[in-house]
Amino acid sequence: MLDDYDYTLPPNLIAQQPLARRSDARLLVVDRQDEGFAHRHVRDLPELLRPGDCVVVNDTRVIAATLIGRRASTGGRWQGLFLDSDAQGCWRVICKTRGKQTPGDVVMLQDRELRDRVALRMIEKQDEGVWIAKCDARDAALDLLESLGRVPLPHYIRDGVMIDEDRQTYQTVYANEPGAIAAPTAGLHFTVDLLKRLKEQGVQLARLTLHVGVGTFRPIKSESLDDHAMHAEWGRLDDAEAEKIAEARAAGGRIVAIGTTTTRLLESVAAAGKMEAWCGPTDLFIRPPYEFKAVDALMTNFHLPRSTLLVLIRTFGGDALIRRAYEEAVREEYRFYSYGDAMLIV
């Protein structure tokens, strides 16, 4: 039942900004064997991992997907979230505005100083508030977003209002492939220095890409988990990285997934029977009684109640143990959600 994945969180524990140094975040270490907890920091990872382990990160880059504009016909305020675009230049956007929006409506997209820049014409309404739209600019969509868009912060961080610092802090230090509309938040804790120390410790680093999509923002609404439709997200694992992961596992090292997005893609790849190059969409929804095939340890932030991410974490760590871990984190006043602290499940 969905109610089993609910919990109470004091609002003051929802982090509104990251720490000055990313790796200073607290780390609740959850040991599945002895069912115990240890209170550490992310900077302690070189002491917590072993030579031969393979840390796998998601190198997706968050795009400036939040759009602000005004409706040309009424002057009314308009807000949108860019999802993706196709080869014909059509955009998929989620729109939010007063009054009814109809095909043919024009929105003047505004830059960060609220100056009108380009026109966006609505073409067709689809399900769940998604519109197909056409932009009158010749610029590539991602280039245009870079100059017009805002960081797509979740609503629980300052009501989604971006400040300039978010352009850097809501991005991992290894972000490379643009396409996500939310950060793979477990990776936000890593610094260049921490990655260097892990390498010196004999811990390998492998990369994959999974573009975090709109499903991240949508809670489970069906009472039964089996009735929840998981949104597909596009991902890729290159051959060299897959080989690195497979060799580490064969040599007795642990595969340590950094975040739920990394976990989803690794498990999607492993579902085919072996760790090898992979590219395409995945709609894998990890829920009980799922048995993990690729991931041995998982580092993750604390997640929203009634979310697919919380279901995944409880499936991996054990339902009763992770419930206790969340109670421990609240009691010890850990910082929650995207800019918050983290948990390492071993």
Largest sheet: 9 strands, mixed
Which CATH class of the largest domain is shown?
A: Alpha Beta
Runs in which pLDDT lies below 50 for 5 or more consecutive residues are: none
Overall structural domain count: 2
Architecture of the largest domain, according to CATH? 3-Layer(aba) Sandwich
Structural class: alpha/beta
Which strand order does the major sheet show? 2-1-17-16-14-3-12-13-15
What is the succession of H and E elements?
A: EEHEEEEEEEEHHEHEEHEHEEHHE
Helix content: 10-25%
Q: Quote the average pLDDT.
A: 94
* Total number of strands: 17
Specify the CATH homologous superfamily of the largest domain: QueA-like
Shape from CA axes? Answer: globular
Number of helices: 8
Task: Give the CA-CA distance, first to last residue.
Answer: 26 Å
Strand proportion, as a percent range, falls in 25-35%
What's the gyration radius in Å? 21 Å
Description:
The protein is α/β, with parallel strands linked by helices and 346 residues long. The protein has two domains: 2-62 and 167-345, QueA-like (3-Layer(aba) Sandwich), CATH 3.40.1780.10; 66-148, QueA-like (Thrombin, subunit H, Beta Barrel). The chain has helices spanning 45-48, 141-148, 166-169, 192-200, 239-250, 260-270, 308-317, 319-331, and strands spanning 26-31, 36-41, 54-58, 60-62, 66-71, 77-85, 90-97, 106-110, 116-125, 130-135, 177-180, 204-210, 233-237, 255-258, 278-282, 297-301, 342-345. A nine-stranded mixed beta sheet has the order 2-1-17-16-14-3-12-13-15. A six-stranded antiparallel beta barrel has the order 5-6-7-10-9-8. Strands 4-11 form a two-stranded parallel sheet. A hairpin with a 4-residue loop joins strand 6 and strand 7 (90-97). It starts with 25 loop residues before the first strand and ends with a strand.
